[in-house]
Amino acid sequence: MSRRAFFIVLILFLSSILVSGKNFKPFNGRKYVVPFIKNPPKIDGKIEKGEWEDALIIDKFYQINPGDYLPPTAYTKVYIMYDEKNIYLGVYASLKGVDKFNPIHLRRDETGETEDIDFSFDTFCKYKSAYVVVFNCYGEITDGIQSNNGFDSSQDFDITSKGVLYKDHYEIEAKIPFRNFKFPSKFPMKWGFTLGRHIYLKKGFEEDISILADRNAPNMFEYEDYLIFEHRVKTKSLYIIPQILGSYNRDSFDSSYGGDYTNSSYLGS
Predict the structure, then answer these.
(1) Which of 22, 91, 131, 197 is the most exposed place for a label (fewest CB within 10 A)?
(2) pLDDT tens digits for 174-209?
């Protein structure tokens, strides 16, 4: 298992999306009312002035590895808001103080040793499963469902996302239609959620999380904060997502008979 995949599993463990035990009592997490907007942002990976001024902002994170709830090495700010059809996510991730940064492009659901920002949504607050979306610095995603059976990345959500890398930070913007999720029809609606960030350093990597959980608790799965949606949203019960996948690979070889040659391959579906 790669470090990135391990981090996803650990964040989900700490963010309480699974529960075992009969005497479970929910953690009294923070409750955030998500602002309802009428003018959605342009999803171009640039957190521009005025676009996110009405958003919920979460910028308090705790380092859980290698430190034990220490201040993080780098600053992270997350924006959340929604309209009738979509939830919008924005990220500002500072790289100041980060002594190693490995920005690599990833295919859908591919894992690699690179920075990422993790969102988990427990839409029924049942602590048994959660929708998970992970973004790298370019806005490329790993998504799926975490449950008692592990992480299932076979379900690809309809997500529009873009990330832009700058000299000292990166920014991500994403739009996720509510129709991707199952959730209660009763409003106001409450979702359990957790945020995480994975930062590579010269000596290993750092893991940050948005919840302050008690590590001495017998059941770490019970910890998550909550998003409150007060306005009703519109969804469809059936939708089709056209999808095209393609890849190109080119390898160069030194020939013992003199000269070089390349081997190219194309895959698509």
Answers:
(1) 22
(2) 999 999 999 998 889 999 999 999 998 887 889 999
